[in-house]
Design a protein that fits this description.
Elements lengths: L3 E4 L2 E8 L33 E4 L8 H10 L6 E4 L4 H10 L3 E3 L11 E5 L4 E4 L1
Parallel strand pairs: 2-3, 3-4, 4-5
Antiparallel strand pairs: 1-5, 2-6, 6-7
Helix pairs in contact: 1-2
Length: 127
């Protein structure tokens, strides 16, 4: 799938897919990488070492620093794939050095799929 590069780099990993937006500030535990937002489809699941796939971010601009903190603490995703990356997620991915691609039809990706992300080229491949 061809998309748009947001934050350069490449990664491979298992997808964890949310049909709903993610709010990083108060939504993901900074120390564990576990989704803690009550009622969220990924509540209780870890993003650590996964390709995090979701439509877009939501919430506070502090979310950018949460993404950075997840990476710094070694519990962040290996890559991020979005339908539309807004500035909160883009800034966080760039600060954290997490490859990020958007303009992807995430409905074609399921949790558990193995993905190859080439954010330099803006591509996502289901393996």
């Amino acid at each position: 799938m061809d998309g748009r590069s947001i934050s350069p780099g490449s990664a491979e990993g298992e997808a964890i897919v949310s049909p709903e937006p993610i709010g990083f500030y108060g939504g993901i535990d900074l120390d564990t990488g576990v989704v803690i937002e009550k009622g969220h489809p990924l509540e209780g699941q870890s993003v650590t070492g996964k390709v995090l796939v979701f439509p877009n971010g939501k919430g506070s601009t502090v979310g950018s620093y949460v993404i950075y903190g997840l990476a710094k603490n070694g519990v962040g995703p290996v890559a991020i794939v979005n339908k539309e990356t807004e500035t909160i997620v883009a800034t966080g991915a760039i600060l954290a050095g997490i490859p990020c691609v958007d303009k992807i039809d995430i409905d074609q990706i399921n949790s558990g799929d193995n993905l190859r992300i080439d954010a330099d080229a803006g591509t996502v491949e289901v393996l």
